[in-house]
């Protein structure tokens, strides 16, 4: 047997031990490959998708690749940790450091190679699914058909063989061979607990509290300025939370014999404290990665909903037309007939209303104010099902559109409410109430007055025109078609809401998809970290439980211990990440001044659900493995 | 106390292998029995069947009037925890726990009061001479100490039957003597029945009776007389007769 054969057989005949490491590597490759399939799809290279999206995809690919590097490195180092004893034995038998490094290098190359090939193969299986999802999320004219991804395969293969090569080189180089006795006792000796001090535990709580406080307090543009300091403070706080506070709590629990010596608690806590250092690190990483995933997806989803929902609210009409200030009446007539022509052509039943807008200069200081006749207002209101207004003769109603308002500055209504209108014949009209509607799309607010009073407003200082259409039971597709046609015929003057939303979705789709993809990659990797943490210790756990089972441990007791162990591992970092994510999204909604509660709940809720499902699956296999060892 | 009737064990496989054939064995309360035999004779299989880790293919096992193999899985675990004590060749201590925690483990699983556990642990530790290492971790203690800890763990719940699998297998002769002395004193003081599988004639000579098995059958048994030294000699002779070469016979004594 040559040394090379030994290294190969060591892997091939010891599949169990290597499987967790192999699977997480395979998974990483698969994620990258799936992304590559998508990125290299012929539908994108045809030049029909905008360049920004392509750059975004390249950046996303880079992020996934860098992340893969760290993920594989982490998996590998914790895998090597669990094999200390084996290395100790080899050294005892006279293997030189160089030989051990060579062995680790060969092993990693072997595993890396199979993981790459396996990842590409499983990726191919999922390719159709991912393309289908992409097709539905993205708005792309042609469908993302399945193709044989030669380029994706080549790129993935080369990148990952290179990555595994680098990591193998790297790890075999840093593989420190400590004292032999430490290596041999490696699996029995705890790596120790991080130092836990009360001061640092309090500091951890303080840092997080400050971070949360600041991010909840700031508003508007301050959010951007506060972003980086808050992220740093909270990250540090989270690190201390897991390395200090959790250590401190477990120590207290262990110190209390009433708790620690109660039934299966001893098994659970001794295990937790035994792996405290590893656990703290894993918890920290998982919490941060998940927070990034939650915030990224929440932000994108929130941003999209902010854009589209806001527009939908402001634009209640199917179409609205407003000419340029210097357009002549003929141009307007012409435009209207074109629009009506297109509507007819597409066989869309719609109602049109037009209105001449009259503005007056001297009603309130330093501004021009629109005054609308009550009957005109009611005509428009009827079109979109808003309630009518009936001001008395001496009364003016202030209408404002708060959803279209920017957050800065005083509200329009305040100014208008404070200004009684003195007419030329001496009548005084008093603003009586504020109505908040989208009937006329005027951001600055306006007065609605009684028809009779309106006659007394003479010679407006400025005139404008507006026309609106509300379609009756037309399909969304039809409206988009109409919008695109009208947009071609009369540029910029027409707001066709369905078409504009479609355009937004079209440009926003790829960004959302990429963000979603990266977010999910991060989240699933966080899960894999946990899975890996569990399965690295599996052999030790099996041994432990089988020794206890010989003394006598019922199945239900065993399940109880394992259950709690897995649950603690899975949920403590995620709960922290969920809280972080919720705070981050609240800060975001302060930034936009837009309520994101629904979006945040959907994003965080679905992640919680996924985590629960993931927990149930992993627990099932873990318990099964342990039970098999016991029997 | 323990009664085996016509116990046989056949391992199924490509080639079925008969490990035990019609074993009849009875152990009285408070008796100390050693089982000896060459490697592969079925000693460990026998012990596994008695300790309920393995089930017999045919035959009956009765411990204190009950057949543990007829118990449900959970009840079996409880039975083991309450009625049996185990001592293993490789100690089987949990390395995540301290010595004291290892000793009280069977009681914590049963939910005994902390004060009671502590008292019992300290009593045992005192009698086994391991008080000084109670807060140490398992990798910090020697083999002899580890086996004493294992004995303490096996004894803490006052089992009726103590099963020992090569308890001196990993120990030097001094530590072996100490451990055997302790087992004997426990046996005498607590009237705990003791069944021990061993290769070590020295260890076997501490027992009341040695049962020899060979090729899965009972071969013979010898009882201890007055002197341990003479008993030891008889054991050596029997071992030589069973599997050794002629020159293993001891020289004729005067």
UniProtKB/TrEMBL annotation, chain A:
Membrane topology note: Multi-pass membrane protein
GO cellular component: plasma membrane
Location of this chain's protein in the cell: Cell membrane
Keyword terms of this UniProt record: Cell membrane, Membrane, Transmembrane, Transmembrane helix, Transport
Record carries keyword Cell membrane: yes
Chief place where the protein resides: membrane
Transmembrane segments: 20-41, 53-74, 109-134, 146-175, 196-218, 224-250, 283-303, 511-532, 566-588, 600-622
InterPro entries: ABC-4_Integral_Memb_Prot, ABC3_permease_C, ABC_permease_BceB-typ
Annotated ranges, domain ABC3 transporter permease C-terminal: 59-176
PANTHER family: ABC TRANSPORTER PERMEASE-RELATED-RELATED, ABC TRANSPORTER, PERMEASE PROTEIN
Stated family: Belongs to the ABC-4 integral membrane protein family.
Name by which UniProt lists this protein: ABC transporter permease
TrEMBL record, chain B:
Gene Ontology CC terms: membrane protein complex
Record has Zinc as a keyword: no
InterPro entries: AAA+_ATPase, ABC_transporter-like_ATP-bd, ABC_transporter-like_CS, MacB-like_ATP-bd, P-loop_NTPase
ABC transporter domain residues: 2-240
Keywords, alphabetical: ATP-binding, Nucleotide-binding, Transport
A GO molecular-function annotation: ATP binding
Pfam families according to UniProt: ABC_tran
Family: Belongs to the ABC transporter superfamily.
Protein name from the UniProt record: ABC transporter ATP-binding protein
Protein species of origin: Ornithinibacillus halotolerans
């Amino acid at each position: 047997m040559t040394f090379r054969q030994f290294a190969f057989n060591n892997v091939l005949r010891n599949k169990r031990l290597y499987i967790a490491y192999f699977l997480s590597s395979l998974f990483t490759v698969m994620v990258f490959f799936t992304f590559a399939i998508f990125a290299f799809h012929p539908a994108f290279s045809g030049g029909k998708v905008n360049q920004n999206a392509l750059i975004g995809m390249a950046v996303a690919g880079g992020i996934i690749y860098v992340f893969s590097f760290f993920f594989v490195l982490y998996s590998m180092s914790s895998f090597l940790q669990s094999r200390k004893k084996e290395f100790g034995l080899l050294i005892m038998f006279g293997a030189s450091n160089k030989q051990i490094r060579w062995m680790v290098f060969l092993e990693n190359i072997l595993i890396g190679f199979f993981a790459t090939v396996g990842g590409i193969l499983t990726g191919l299986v999922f390719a159709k699914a991912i393309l289908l999802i992409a097709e539905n999320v993205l708005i792309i004219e042609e469908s993302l058909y399945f193709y044989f991804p030669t380029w994706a395969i080549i790129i993935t293969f080369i990148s990952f063989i290179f990555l595994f090569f680098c990591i193998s080189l790297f790890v075999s180089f840093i593989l420190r061979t400590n004292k032999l006795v430490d290596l041999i006792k490696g699996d029995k000796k705890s790596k120790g607990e991080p130092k836990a001090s009360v001061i640092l535990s309090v500091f951890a709580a303080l840092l997080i509290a400050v971070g949360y406080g600041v991010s909840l307090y700031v508003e508007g543009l301050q959010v951007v300025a506060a972003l980086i300091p808050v992220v740093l403070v909270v990250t540090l706080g989270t690190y201390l939370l897991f390395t200090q506070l959790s250590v401190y709590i477990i120590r207290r629990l262990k110190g209390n014999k009433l708790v620690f010596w109660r039934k299966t608690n001893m098994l659970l806590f001794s295990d937790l404290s035994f792996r405290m250092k590893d656990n703290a690190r894993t918890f920290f990483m998982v919490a941060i990665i998940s927070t990034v995933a939650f915030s990224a997806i929440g932000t994108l989803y929130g941003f999209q909903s902010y854009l589209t929902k806001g527009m939908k609210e402001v634009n209640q009409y199917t179409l609205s037309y407003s000419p340029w200030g210097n357009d002549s009446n003929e141009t307007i007539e012409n435009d209207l007939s074109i629009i009506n022509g297109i509507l007819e052509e597409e066989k869309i039943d719609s109602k049109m209303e037009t209105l001449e807008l009259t503005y007056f200069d001297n009603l309130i200081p330093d501004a021009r104010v629109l005054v609308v006749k009550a009957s005109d207002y009611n005509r428009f209101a009827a079109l979109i099902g808003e309630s009518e207004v009936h001001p008395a003769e001496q009364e003016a109603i202030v209408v404002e559109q708060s959803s279209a308002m920017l957050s800065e500055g005083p509200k329009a209504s305040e100014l208008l409410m404070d200004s009684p209108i003195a007419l030329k014949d001496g009548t005084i009209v008093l603003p009586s109430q504020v109505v908040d509607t989208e009937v006329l799309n005027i951001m600055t607010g306006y007065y609605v007055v009684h028809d009779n009073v309106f006659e007394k407003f003479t010679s407006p200082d400025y005139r404008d025109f507006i026309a609106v259409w509300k379609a009756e039971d037309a399909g969304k597709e039809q409206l988009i078609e109409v919008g695109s046609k009208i947009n071609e015929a009369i540029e910029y003057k027409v707001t066709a809401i369905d078409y504009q939303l479609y355009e937004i979705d079209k440009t926003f789709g790829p960004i959302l998809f990429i963000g979603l993809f990266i977010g999910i990659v991060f989240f699933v990797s966080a899960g894999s970290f946990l899975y890996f943490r569990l399965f690295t210790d599996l052999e030790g756990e099996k041994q432990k439980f089988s020794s206890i089972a010989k003394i006598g441990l019922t199945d239900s007791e065993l399940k109880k211990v394992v259950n709690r162990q897995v649950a603690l591992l899975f949920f403590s970092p995620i709960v922290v990440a969920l809280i972080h994510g919720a705070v981050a999204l609240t800060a975001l909604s302060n930034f936009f001044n837009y309520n994101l509660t629904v979006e945040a709940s959907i994003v965080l809720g679905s992640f919680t659900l996924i985590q629960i499902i993931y927990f149930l699956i992993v627990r099932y296999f873990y318990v099964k493995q342990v039970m098999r060892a016991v029997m | 106390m323990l009664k085996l009737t016509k116990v046989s064990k056949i391992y199924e496989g490509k080639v079925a292998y008969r490990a035990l054939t019609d074993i009849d064995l009875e152990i009285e309360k408070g008796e100390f029995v050693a089982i000896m035999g060459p490697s592969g004779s079925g000693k460990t299989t026998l012990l596994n069947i008695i300790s309920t880790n393995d089930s017999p293919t045919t035959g009956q096992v009765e411990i204190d009037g009950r057949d543990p193999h007829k118990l449900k899985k959970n009840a079996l675990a409880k039975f083991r925890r309450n009625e049996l004590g185990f001592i293993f060749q490789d100690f089987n201590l949990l390395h995540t726990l301290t010595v004291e925690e290892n000793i009280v483990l069977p009681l914590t699983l049963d939910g005994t009061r902390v004060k009671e556990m502590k008292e019992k642990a300290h009593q045992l530790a005192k009698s086994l001479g391991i008080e000084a290492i109670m807060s140490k971790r398992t990798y910090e203690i020697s083999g002899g100490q580890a086996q004493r800890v294992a004995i303490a763990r096996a004894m803490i719940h006052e089992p009726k039957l103590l099963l020992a699998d090569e308890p001196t297998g990993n120990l030097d002769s001094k530590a072996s003597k100490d451990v055997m002395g302790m087992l004997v004193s426990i046996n005498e003081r607590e009237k705990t029945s003791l069944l021990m599988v061993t290769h070590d004639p020295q260890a076997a000579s501490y027992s009341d009776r040695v049962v020899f098995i060979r090729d899965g059958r009972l071969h013979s048994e010898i009882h201890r007389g007055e002197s341990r030294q003479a008993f030891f000699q008889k054991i050596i002779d029997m071992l030589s007769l069973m599997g050794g070469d002629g020159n293993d016979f001891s020289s004729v004594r005067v």
